[in-house]
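Hey, can you fold this?
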Amino acid sequence: MQEVKIRDEYIKLEQAMKLAGAVSMGSEAKMVIQAGEVLVNSEVELRRGKKLRDGDIFTYENNDYRIVGA
């Protein structure tokens, strides 16, 4: 599981995917989120603005990413 370190209280799903390197551009993140290909805490998430906080886990292409807060 890869850790994604954030400095603030939360990060939006789309931004977290870019920060983690799971996608290269925001438009790519938007497409895969809206297509239902991303899980947040084991549930399909369709909102790219979903706020992720310390301890949340998102999954894309069978890779898990854990949000680690400041």
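Oh, and this one too while you're at it.
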Amino acid sequence: MNINDWKSQVKRGTLELCILSLLSKRDYYGYELIEVLSSWDMIATNENTMYPLLRRLTKEGYLEGYWQENNDLPRRKYYRITDSGVQYLIEMTVLWKTLTKAVSDIQDHKEEL
């Protein structure tokens, strides 16, 4: 395994958490989420990853989508987090904080001789 493979695995495991976190603040359309996430190279994604993930989260009941007209522009499908999505996000956040603390503690660990 090389560093890009490892990065891909880490990203796959955290992208869902990042998307739900953004959607807990306001509604977004798919491409807008891609643009926002592009601000962070480690978590930046593309349409081939984003749209299947949004469909799956919707199917699982964590998100709901709705269409909105935009004047002369084509209509856009926006996503909002559901109550079960908020609960899922809370649980994921607790696990994320526990994981990142454990990794940090391990990296700081010094064996006593």
